[in-house]
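Incident log, support desk, overnight shift.

02:14 A customer reports that sequence design results differ from what the structure should imply. Their input is reproduced verbatim below. On-call engineer (initials T.W.) acknowledged and began investigating.
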């Protein structure tokens, strides 16, 4: 099905199942431990052996030689696969860094060997016996130091401009110019990367933890130099990803190589202390923002420049994306610059671009509002736009940022915010409120599915879509249930298997809308097959409801259409130009109240509210879970999360969850989420949009702005740890 005109009224609009508060259909499996994750797979064909990866101890250079004799002779060892024995493996399409092979070291903890043994402990002990002689080279590890060497990236659209920024800024009545920094961040999802690889002749099956089944399948085949048809990927349950599992990783490659060498199925997991330097991270940024405005608060000029770094061949963190679209202003420019750094690969982490971009932009907007003497909610509303401000002929498909801000201000009690920073004190707590807009683009990605109706009236959906904890199982079941007029418990959903039709996968907050749209398309075909089977010309003559098909006075069980044989339909949603003629984005507003301890500078979040305008909400429970999870991640970004770079040796020092601090339950207070009642017919037949990453974009700035309102101390360098506040706090009386 090609989607190239705005969606008309369709069966989803009934809202009998879609849009309802339905608990996760995979919930019981997860809460009872019966959902089988990558590392837990087992079958009756024999037990698995264990692979343990050796990581490079240098960040840049070459392996002169490796001595694996002691490891090979250690107890229980079955095989040792080394990179210098294997030659350069081909790099997959989606990887920047080489995952394995050859003697060149591109980053610290790059995989250089895997030791296979009967037990995990034996493999780990033997791995410690591998001796490596390195030729170390000097690398670049410090973004600040490398900033001036940054260049305009060759791919993408690094720069944009409209009007004449320089002239307008020069003559603006009120001007603002500040620079912000965001640190390297780690995805820190709960489940580490893990794979079990088993060969059957020349056919490879890998049980793994992947957000994008087809990307992994393609890139694993490329990396191993085998036919894609010979590779089978399974990833039905996933303990979080946040972008770290978008692209093939070393665990899958090394499990496959190790299993081939050991002639046994091999399990490989990335231990947490290995993961943060071996895989990917969100790159640090330096962001300069300039704003010029009239005294009445209208923006006349806005510029956003961002610098980040990556390995050679990598890409930038496009932190300026939202500034192209969020606020009006006739004269504007954005620029993205990329430095070469020899740190581990920088890549997508939840809301790549907008998440760190909003961390900077939304403080800048708060600062400019103050300079203009305007309320920060009003300042944002004054500068709303209904068209792409760089290309005014392009309207937004749907945009209600103003509604999000107004609703939020009212519900949060914004009028009680102290106008003066440091103006509200409760005992030892300095109390403040902050606001930020939320913004994330809505991406459209083709997605396929297969649906089957059997004689019992059970509808089975198969797609290689993944559920990374987001609720894909549930919203896909709801979609099929609505389309075929059956209750959710008559729908079986199978995901995460490369034998199923290729889906959008889970990334960029597009999975919810796009994968259900693919299921919609397949169900449209199944409705046609049902109509035909029952002797009707078109499904339009039929009502699908209550497990029955009705036409006029005639009614029959849906299952009757499958009484001879199961009916199977497969289709794929493809998107036309609606995301080019119309800018498709999601909007929201984040409100935060903090208390800052006047003596210690410790920040505690007291209340949080997100108001989201993101098209039809397919399931308010799973959508809310996405948003509160994202808000929690935003608190981490504001207050604690930072990969600390050793700028001499070139690695992330705090590479475990003891030292890379993410929020825990005790850090997170009451969170509230409001969804505006909207739908976007330009987005898909589902009229839904992304929601998961919207919940993150803006949160950290709202926290920063609340801290400023509480204390009068403006911190422009994330995370806002107490050392950055304490010297500015009032004397303790
Ligand atoms: Mo998201 S960074 O696209 O998993």
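02:41 Re-run completed on a clean worker. Output:
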């Amino acid at each position: 099905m090609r989607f190239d005109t705005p969606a008309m009224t369709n069966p989803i609009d009934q809202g009998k199942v879609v849009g309802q508060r339905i608990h996760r259909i995979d919930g019981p499996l997860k809460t009872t431990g019966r959902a089988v994750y990558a590392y837990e797979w087992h079958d009756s064909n024999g037990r698995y052996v264990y692979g343990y990866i050796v990581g490079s101890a240098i960040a840049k250079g070459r392996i002169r030689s490796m001595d694996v004799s002691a490891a090979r002779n250690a107890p229980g060892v079955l095989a040792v696969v080394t990179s210098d024995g294997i030659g350069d493996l081909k790099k997959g399409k989606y990887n920047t860094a080489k995952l394995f092979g050859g003697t060149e070291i591109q980053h610290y903890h790059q995989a250089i060997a895997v030791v296979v043994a009967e037990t995990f402990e034996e493999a780990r002990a033997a791995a410690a016996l591998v001796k490596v002689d390195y030729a170390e080279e000097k690398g670049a590890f410090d973004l600040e130091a490398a900033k001036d060497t940054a260049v305009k990236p060759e791919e993408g659209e690094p720069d944009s401009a409209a009007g004449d920024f320089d002239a307008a800024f020069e003559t603006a009545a009120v001007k603002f110019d500040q620079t912000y920094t965001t640190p390297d961040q780690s995805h820190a999802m709960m489940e580490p990367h893990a794979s079990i690889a088993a060969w059957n002749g020349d056919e490879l099956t890998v049980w793994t933890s992947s957000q994008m089944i087809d990307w992994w399948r393609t890139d694993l085949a490329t990396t191993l130099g085998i036919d894609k048809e010979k590779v089978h990927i399974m990833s039905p349950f996933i303990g979080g990803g946040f972008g770290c599992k978008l692209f093939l990783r070393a665990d899958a490659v090394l499990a496959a190589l190790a299993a081939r060498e050991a002639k046994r199925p091999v399990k490989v997991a990335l231990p947490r202390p290995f993961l943060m330097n071996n895989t990917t991270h969100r790159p640090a940024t330096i962001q300069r923002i300039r704003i010029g405005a009239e005294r009445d608060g209208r923006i006349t000029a806005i510029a956003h420049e961002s610098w980040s770094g990556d390995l050679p061949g990598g890409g930038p963190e496009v932190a300026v994306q939202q500034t192209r679209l969020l606020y009006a202003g006739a004269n504007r420019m954005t620029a993205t610059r990329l430095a070469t750094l020899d740190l581990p690969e920088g890549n997508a982490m939840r809301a790549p671009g907008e998440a760190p971009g909003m961390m900077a932009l939304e403080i800048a907007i708060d600062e400019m509002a103050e300079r203009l003497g305007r309320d920060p909610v009003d300042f944002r509303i004054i500068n709303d736009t209904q068209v792409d401000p760089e290309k005014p002929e392009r309207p937004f498909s749907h945009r209600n940022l103003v509604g999000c801000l107004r609703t939020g201000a009212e519900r949060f009690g914004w009028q009680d915010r102290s106008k003066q920073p440091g103006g509200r004190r409760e005992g030892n707590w300095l109390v403040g409120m902050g606001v930020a807009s939320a913004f994330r683009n809505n991406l459209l990605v083709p997605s396929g599915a297969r649906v089957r109706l059997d004689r019992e009236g059970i509808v089975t959906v198969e797609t290689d879509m993944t559920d990374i904890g987001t609720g894909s199982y549930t919203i896909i079941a709801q979609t099929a249930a609505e389309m075929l007029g059956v209750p959710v418990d008559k729908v079986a959903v199978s995901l995460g298997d490369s034998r199923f039709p290729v889906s959008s996968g889970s990334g960029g907050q597009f999975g919810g809308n796009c994968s259900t749209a693919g299921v919609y398309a397949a169900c449209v075909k199944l409705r046609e097959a049902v109509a035909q089977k029952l002797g009707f010309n078109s499904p339009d003559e039929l009502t699908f409801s209550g497990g029955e098909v009705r036409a006029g006075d005639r009614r029959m069980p849906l299952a009757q259409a499958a009484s001879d044989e199961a009916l199977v339909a497969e289709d794929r949603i493809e998107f036309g130009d609606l995301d080019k003629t119309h800018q498709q984005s999601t909007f929201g507003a984040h409100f935060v109240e903090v208390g800052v301890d006047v003596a210690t500078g410790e920040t505690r979040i007291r209340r949080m509210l997100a108001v989201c305008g993101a098209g039809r909400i397919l399931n308010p429970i799973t959508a809310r879970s996405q948003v509160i999870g994202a808000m929690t991640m935003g608190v981490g970004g504001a207050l604690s999360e930072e990969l600390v770079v050793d700028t001499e040796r070139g690695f992330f020092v705090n590479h475990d969850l003891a030292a890379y601090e993410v929020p825990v339950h005790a850090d997170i207070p009451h969170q509230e989420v409001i969804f505006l009642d909207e739908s976007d017919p330009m987005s898909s037949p589902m009229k839904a949009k992304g929601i998961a990453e919207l919940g993150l974009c803006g949160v950290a700035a709202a926290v920063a702005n609340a801290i400023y309102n509480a204390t009068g101390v403006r911190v422009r360098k994330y995370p806002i740890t107490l050392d950055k506040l304490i010297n500015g706090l009032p004397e303790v009386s």
